[in-house]
Design goal:
single chain, 450 residues, mainly alpha, Amino acid/polyamine transporter I, globular
């Protein structure tokens, strides 16, 4: 994120990090990265629409999920045809609900852990029995088994963090990117610690990993650890409230899927990696062709109406998880190349609008661990060998390699030399603009600005 922030404030362009890969590293890398990232968001749109139906089935199991896939698809797609200010306004209220819910859950968790629930004081009992980590696959060596369990879920855990990089995509449509993007980047770390890590910490205190609710095959919200925590505490009304919040969460994510996917297409169009008509916009700046093309993939959610197609859909979903790690790797590589381009031009990083700390070590750290996770995340397909599981785990990496190799073979474009990297297009226009500072108006706006 800090690597992306340094580039996005210096060059706030639409479809940001795909443009950085093309400009600073290799046009083929930008092409492959952009298309697999776009595809991951388009498929995730179908996933979120499906999730909305499953969540509603918590209350009405007799209703077909296709009803909600179609209804929410029409509403969210329509919203994305409106000016970006409408998208921002809707996301503001969705985000406010999520923030208040997380804070409320933490207060609830502290009270239950301290003894307010039906089981009395809990403390760290779940860390003692059954334990803080679940052993997996390996026998006769508990420490190794726990590490294997931890490593086996890295892709699923990483999927939850995908979207933090959207601030880089939004930089091209932000009124004052030199001010707002660094502020958003700096707050990312604290938001992850507060809203992700602390939430998982409290869930770990309240819900043992061998709870039957977690191990069930149910596809509705009853398997959510939030709902399980409330049920274990003996609180009857809270599960329905949490379920309603989860519905807001997935609809918010679906809204972001269409926005981010369409803007990636705009960036690819500007780079010549997608048809030019994909970049056409309305007078208010809405890329209507890109929105329509991205939203159309949400209809793949209807594949879940049949069991056979549902398997294919699961393959698509796996692409979204690994694609995030591939994207983060490419962002780090782009940033390393960006710093080399600055050095070749004699531009000091001290002059940048936002200077990331501990670079280039942070970017190299990101490259190493992201690549390590990408290459090893499918290790369970070797224990024992399972061809289907192997392709499910590595299909996104294979797709990325095919996109990169195909583009390189057809266009035969060389790697970008640091001295020839484009550091100007998009930057001079920003420097010529003048921004007026505006204070947030109203309590909610001030709260969200914080």
């Amino acid at each position: 994120m800090v690597a992306l922030g340094e580039m996005a404030t210096f060059l706030p362009v639409s479809g940001a990090f795909t443009a950085y890969a093309s400009r600073f590293v290799d046009p083929s890398l930008g092409f492959a990265m952009g298309w697999i990232y776009w595809f991951s968001w388009a498929i995730t749109y179908a996933l979120e629409l499906t999730a909305s139906g499953l969540i509603i089935q918590y209350w009405r199991a007799d209703l077909n999920i296709g009803i909600f896939i179609g209804s929410f698809w029409a509403i969210i797609t329509a919203v994305n045809f409106l000016p970006v200010s409408f998208y921002g306004e809707i996301e503001f209220y969705f985000a406010s609900i999520k923030v208040l819910t997380v804070i409320g859950f933490m207060i609830f968790a502290i009270c239950i852990d301290a003894g307010a629930g039906q089981h009395g004081y809990l403390g760290f009992d779940t860390w003692k029995n059954p334990g803080a980590f679940a052993p997996y696959l390996v026998e006769n060596n508990e420490a190794v088994a726990k590490f294997v369990g931890f490593w086996a879920v890295l892709i699923q855990a990483g999927f939850s963090y995908q979207g933090t990089e959207l601030v880089g995509i939004a930089a091209g449509e932000t009124s004052n990117p030199r001010k707002t993007v660094p502020a958003a980047i700096k707050k990312t770390f604290y938001r992850i610690v507060f809203f992700f890590v602390l939430t998982i910490f409290f869930i770990g205190l309240l819900v043992p990993y061998n709870d039957e609710g977690l191990l069930s095959d149910t596809t509705d919200a009853s398997s959510s650890p939030f709902v399980i925590a409330a049920n274990l505490a003996g609180v009857k009304v809270l599960p329905s409230i949490i379920n309603a919040v989860l519905l807001c969460v997935v609809l918010s994510a679906a809204n972001s899927n269409v926005y981010s996917g369409s803007r990636i297409l705009v960036g690819l169009s500007e780079q010549g990696s997608a048809p030019k008509w994909m970049g056409r916009t309305t007078a208010r700046g809405v890329p209507y062709y890109a929105v329509a093309f991205t939203a159309a993939f949400g209809l793949l959610g209807f594949m879940n109406e049949s069991n056979a197609a549902g398997e294919v859909f699961n393959w698509f979903v796996n692409i979204t998880g690994v694609a995030g790690f591939i994207t983060w790797t490419c962002i780090n590589i782009s940033h390393i190349a960006f710093m080399r381009a600055l050095a070749a031009r004699g531009v000091s990083r001290d002059t940048l609008p936002y200077k990331a700390m501990w670079q280039p070590w942070f970017s190299w750290y990101g490259v190493f661990f992201n690549v390590l996770i990408i290459l090893t995340q499918g290790f369970t397909s070797f224990m024992p060998w399972n061809t289907s599981d192997f392709f499910v785990a590595y299909i996104s990496l294979i797709l990325f390699a095919v996109l990169y190799g195909g583009h390189k073979l057809v266009y035969r474009q060389p790697f970008v030399k640091p001295i020839e990297a484009d550091l100007d297009t998009g930057r001079k226009e920003i420097e010529e603009m003048h921004f007026e500072e505006a204070e947030p108006v109203g309590a909610w706006q001030k709260f969200w600005a914080w």
